[in-house]
Amino acid sequence: MANLDIPNHVAIIVDGNGRWAIERGLARSRGHEKGFRNIQKLTAYIFTKGIKYVSAYLFSTENFKRGEKEVSFLMNLLVGKQKDILTFCHDEKIKVVVSGRQENLNTKVVKAIKNIEWETRNYPDRVFNLCFNYGAHAELIDATKKIVDDVQKGKFDINTLDEEKYAKYLYQDLPPVDLLIRTGGEQRISNFMLWQCSYAEFYFAKTYFPDFEEKEFDKALSEYMRRERRFGGINDEKPNN
Ligand code: IPE
Ligand code: IPE
Ligand code: MG
After folding, report:
1. How many angstroms separate the alpha carbon of residue 58 from the centre of ligand 2?
2. Does residue 14 line the site of ligand 1, with CB under 6 A?
3. Does ligand 2 come within 6 angstroms of the Cβ of 224?
4. How far is the CA of 70 from the centre of ligand 1 (A)?
5. Ligand 2 site, residue 15, Cβ cutoff 6 A
6. Which of 10, 92, 109, 237 is the most interior residue, by most CB within 10 Å?
């Protein structure tokens, strides 16, 4: 019988901000603002449940395809809200780690990221993994390059490479994702945490992210806890045919 414990790591594909705004006759940026406020509220709530790791997908490597105005709005959000983010993290004792490629980000954004990570480094019990200019393909390529580099430097023998060692080369050393939530009605992964979600339970909500509040999260959580996870094995308590 399925009866899962609270997940250790919840990941959220934050989607539907634009449609939330358009349906209200507002600019897409208003949806991003509302979404941003909701991330804080929801994250604080999720941590009160005893969940230790939260990953949130906020800007993908593919999101640069959007218009310049929207891209720069999203970039500036992180810079402009920096103070707000820090106050929130100190109040809630949240450590922020940022996953994604920083090479092609504006220096102001990189500075904000580094500052937020540094300022919040001493809260190891509640980790918020902010995925920004993140793509799972990019992450796997970056990991592979670092591995090749270490092998060429003689740091280890390629024949000893296993899953555990490979995982250490990802952007962050985090446990696997247990529950992946996508808001906004689409049922796809859009290049998010392909390695970490290999055995995650997926939950798709129609609600646009700005409206995805505590009650909606509770629904996702209770559905998760009713699921049965097998990881490729067979659950013992099932009748054996
Ligand atoms: C999610 O909302 C936030 C980002 C991807 C940056 P969207 O902006 O994708 O909103 P929709 O999907 O267009 O409604
Ligand atoms: C996924 O949302 C990326 C983020 C949430 C940051 P998108 O809105 O970019 O995904 P697609 O294009 O609908 O797959
Ligand atoms: Mg979208």
Report:
1. 9
2. yes
3. no
4. 10
5. yes
6. 10
Provide the residue-wise pLDDT of the chain in tens; the chain has 241 residues.
568 999 999 999 999 999 999 999 999 999 999 999 999 999 999 999 999 999 999 999 999 999 999 999 999 999 999 999 999 999 999 999 999 999 999 999 999 999 999 999 999 999 999 999 999 999 999 999 999 999 999 999 999 999 999 999 999 999 999 999 999 999 999 999 999 999 999 999 999 999 999 999 999 999 999 999 999 999 876 555 5
Domain membership of residue 33 as a residue range: 9-135+176-226
What are the structure tokens assigned to 75, written together? 């970039």
Ligand whose nearest atom lies closest to the CA of 71: 1
Indicate whether 94 belongs to any domain: yes
In a domain, 161, yes or no: no
DSSP notation for 156-180: S-GGG--HHHHHTTSSS--PPPSEE
State pTM to two decimals: 0.97
CATH of the domain at 127: 3.40.1180.10
Q: How far apart are CA 63 and CA 74, in angstroms?
A: 10
Flag whether 44 is in a domain: yes
Catalogue the active-site residues: 15, 63
Residues 6+ away with beta carbon under 8 Å from 35: 14, 17, 20, 209, 210
Which tokens sit at 70? 């929207």
Q: Does residue 178's CB lie within 6 angstroms of at least one atom of ligand 2?
A: no
Total tally of structural domains belonging to the chain: 1
